[in-house]
């Protein structure tokens, strides 16, 4: 996201900070300027975009941001957090004269790199007009505005994550079915491509290419631990509203088991790794033949 923004601002230089600053080396080569702290980014910028893993990380970052001069500044949070967390952050920033926009995004790492994220945006209209030129066609493919109440953006993202988890559960179950019955994943993936669209196809391909269980040392497209947090937020919001999300509960159980398996192996798992759990529950190994061969080939290449 930051790289796409820097390219868009040709001739200007964004300030950036990361807890592991070296992860911004490519951004630095593209013209970005590393900062020593969150406070420095706030002090040296009019608009600050934040992308973090969870509610605790957001709260800690806002603690640091409040040490800077927030007067007149716009803070845009693209993280996926609980709606109540967004509301609390909004109040804290407003107390210091800043404006807050909740803008969670849909799309895994490759989608972000391509500048094709879908943005869900809530916050003051004037602040949105200021940041709008940096989103569509730069860091995202489209924007869905859901008003000024920042909780609504987080709630929309939560609802969307429930849909995503539910669809991934269905796709994983279908692939397990066709493997057990001998129909085969290739035929199913062709059906998915022709009948159910690109999003469902991308989910299928995460399973058939082995991305659901990244190779040792590789990072997942979307970490299973983040999926656990996201689905958990969905179930929490549903409980508060008096709604029961049974599909979400099944997906959460499978995600927890996949996370446990990854921890046992010391490997990061993708959010689609619930596929491996569904396989084992059906009498198949967690790893597909594609994963087994890939990992064996990687082991053979070691010096």
Automatic annotation (TrEMBL):
Keyword Oxidoreductase: yes
Entry annotated with the keyword Membrane: no
Record domain 3-hydroxyisobutyrate dehydrogenase-like NAD-binding: where: 153-275
InterPro entries: 6-PGluconate_DH-like_C_sf, 6PGD_dom2, 6PGDH_NADP-bd, HIBADH-like_NADP-bd, HIBADH-related, HIBADH-related_NP60_sf, NAD(P)-bd_dom_sf
Pfam families the UniProt entry points to: NAD_binding_11 (PF14833), NAD_binding_2 (PF03446)
Keywords attached to this entry: NAD, Oxidoreductase
Active site: 157
Single annotated GO MF: NADP binding
Boundaries of every 6-phosphogluconate dehydrogenase NADP-binding domain copy: 1-144
Top-level taxon in the UniProt lineage: Eukaryota
Homology family: Belongs to the HIBADH-related family. NP60 subfamily.
UniProt protein name: NAD binding domain of 6-phosphogluconate dehydrogenase
Organism name: Stachybotrys elegans
């Amino acid at each position: 996201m930051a790289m796409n923004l820097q390219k868009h601002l040709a001739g200007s230089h964004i300030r950036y900070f990361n807890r592991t600053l070296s992860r911004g080396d490519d951004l630095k080569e593209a013209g970005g300027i590393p900062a020593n702290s969150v406070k420095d980014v706030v002090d040296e910028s009019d608009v600050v975009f934040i992308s973090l893993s969870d509610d605790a990380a957001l709260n800690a970052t806002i603690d640091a941001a409040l040490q800077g001069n927030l007067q007149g500044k716009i803070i845009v949070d693209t993280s996926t957090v609980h709606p109540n967390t967004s509301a609390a952050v909004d109040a804290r920033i407003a107390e210091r004269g800043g404006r807050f926009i909740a803008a969670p995004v849909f799309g895994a790492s490759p989608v972000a790199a391509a500048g094709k994220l879908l943005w869900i945006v809530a916050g003051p209209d004037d602040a949105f007009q200021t940041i709008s030129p940096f989103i569509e066609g730069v860091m995202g493919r489209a924007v869905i505005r859901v008003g000024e109440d920042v909780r609504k953006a987080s709630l929309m993202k939560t609802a969307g994550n429930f849909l995503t988890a539910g669809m991934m559960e269905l796709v994983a179950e279908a692939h397990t079915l066709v493997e057990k019955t001998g129909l085969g994943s290739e035929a199913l993936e062709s059906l998915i491509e022709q009948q159910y669209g690109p999003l469902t196809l991308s989910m299928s391909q995460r399973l058939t290419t082995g991305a659901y269980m990244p190779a040792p040392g590789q990072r997942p497209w979307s970490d299973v631990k983040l999926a656990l947090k996201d689905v958990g937020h969905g179930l929490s919001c549903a409980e508060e509203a008096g709604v029961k999300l049974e599909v979400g509960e099944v997906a959460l159980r499978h995600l927890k088991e996949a996370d446990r398996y990854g921890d046992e192996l010391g490997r990061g798992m993708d959010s689609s790794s619930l596929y491996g759990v569904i396989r084992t529950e059906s009498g198949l190994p967690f790893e597909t033949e594609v994963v087994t061969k890939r990992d064996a080939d990687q082991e053979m290449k070691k010096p």
